[in-house]
Specification:
- The protein has about 260 residues and is α+β, with helices and mostly antiparallel strands.
- Helix content is about 55%, strand content about 10%.
- The chain has two domains: about 10-105; about 110-259.
- The strands form two sheets. It has a four-stranded antiparallel beta sheet. A two-stranded antiparallel sheet has the order 5-6.
- Strand 5 (about 150) and strand 6 (about 155-160) form a beta hairpin.
- The radius of gyration is 19 Å and the shape is globular.
């Protein structure tokens, strides 16, 4: 619970209304105030759903981001469910009609550590992969588990951003397979590590997943294997193309080792 004075400070600020997110240093600690996201049209999601359907990759269906009060309600529920399952996520301090207040997990996300390179980046990547596996073992899933949303704390790993719920459009194993695809796509391309080391890590982590998740990943790998043939010209494809190429190459090698 926040004090009445802390709530007055938050409500008087225009920062979270203007920028949607604002950080505060309150007597209760550092918190993040998150206003509601504007409503979004459905067309982009319908297009992605169509592509996923044509490719036969269930775990790549676009997950609706509703915006407004519904998106806030989804995030509150997901934070509560994850916390109840023992998953490290921001503590929820307050829920108002048009904003929520959460614990601030800081700015030290995985992509920032990967950009620094060296052994510390590889250790952080391993810790985050272990965190993701533990989330799945708890019967949960993250959805937006991009490297920028996985926070590396001194003694633990946490995650942020839960305004959507993949189970609206897919099964739990598909949602967990989707977690791995997003995590790998957003981190492998920038990770400074020998391919043989990455291969060993993938064998260790993915091999511990349930058979259902492994089957969902296997189906996605087969459908997306052609991406490994994309040019490595970043000017041509941009960062998204390079990251997709790197992920497809590593996962295809993983598939060949385990067929």
């Amino acid at each position: 619970m926040l004090s009445a004075r802390s709530l007055e400070i938050i409500k008087a600020s225009q920062g979270w209304r203007r920028n949607r997110v604002e950080h505060f240093e309150l007597p209760e600690g550092r918190v993040v105030v998150k206003g509601q996201r504007p409503l979004r049209g459905p067309w982009a999601h319908r297009l992605l759903n169509g592509i996923a359907t044509l490719a036969g990759v269930a775990c790549l269906k676009a997950v609706p981001v509703h915006g407004g009060a519904l998106a806030q309600k989804v995030e509150v529920r997901r934070l509560q469910d994850l916390s109840a399952a023992g998953v490290r996520v921001p503590r929820l301090w307050h829920v108002a009609e048009d904003f929520i207040v959460m614990e601030d997990l800081g700015q030290n996300n995985l992509i920032r550590l990967i950009d620094q390179g060296g052994e510390a980046a590889r250790v952080a990547w391993q810790r985050c992969a272990h965190y993701l596996l533990e989330v799945h073992r708890a019967g949960q899933y993250l959805s937006q588990c991009f490297a920028r949303n996985i926070m590396v704390l001194p003694h633990e790993i946490g995650a942020i951003d839960f305004e959507d719920d993949p189970l609206e459009v897919m099964s739990l194993p598909d949602a967990q397979a989707r977690d791995w695809l997003i995590f790998l796509q957003s981190s492998l391309w920038a990770l400074d590590a020998p391919p043989s080391w990455v291969d060993a890590q993938l064998d260790a982590w993915l091999g511990q997943e349930t058979p259902e998740v492994q089957r969902a990943l296997g189906a996605a790998i087969k459908r997306l294997a052609w991406l490994r043939h994309l040019s490595d010209n970043r000017k041509l494809w941009g960062r998204d193309g390079i990251s997709a190429r790197a992920t497809a190459a590593f996962l295809y090698r993983y598939h060949l080792r385990h067929v």
